[in-house]
Amino acid sequence: MSHLLGYARVSTVDQDPALQLDALTTAGCQRIYTDRASGTLTARPQLDLLLDHALAGDTVCVWRLDRLGRSLPHLIATVTGLHGRGVGFRSLQESIDTTTATGTLIFHLLAALSAFERDLLSERTHAGLAAARARGRVGGRPSKMTPEKLDVARRMLAEGIGKAVIARTIGVSRPSLYDHLKQHPPHSPSSGPGCAGL
To answer: How far apart are CA 123 and CA 129, in angstroms?
Structure first.
């Protein structure tokens, strides 16, 4: 026997899921799983429980698409995983129902748009990096470490000040400070044998 299983999510403990619960109950959900978690968080124990309990022939129902997925790619992956197990998906606000031909078509269009957006982003990123390389930059965001900051860091280090304090003072992370000190060691004032210990 197939079941209609509802899933509701609110972002914080202060929000009331009543609107979603009422809509899911009216839609005929026999059981509703509710999480209180931010949309960006990966930990959703009730969603995990729902996905474990859903069997072939069942349908997972949400009030709105953004209640289920952390992002469009995550939503696509979740619904595709359900489909692979023979579990349908319904979203009440968007009138998507993958147990129907029209709903499946709409969902496939969403998946295609998501893939298109991802490809565009990748293409723009590669184009931006190529343009940066052409202008003489290696790419990525500019470093917070400047030659002036590195000079100050070396002087503070010579005075016995700890690297953690130095990093905070000049406004860079400790790993960044360590990397720059390693990549740009101070030049010795003389290369003679008497300076080997400097």
So the answer is: 10
Active-site amino acid positions:
11
Q: What is the pTM of this model?
A: 0.56
The CA distance from 52 to 149, in Å, is: 53
Beta bridge partners, 10, equal 36
| CB-based contact 5:31 (threshold 8 Å) | yes
Average pLDDT per consecutive 10 residues, the chain (198 residues; last block may be shorter): 92 82 96 83 85 94 88 83 92 90 81 65 71 65 76 83 82 86 67 41
Tell which residue, 66, 58, 52, has the closest CA to residue 83.
58
Strands, E assignment, the chain: 4-10, 31-36, 59-62, 88-91, 96-97
Closest by Cα among 99, 97, 6 to 50: 6
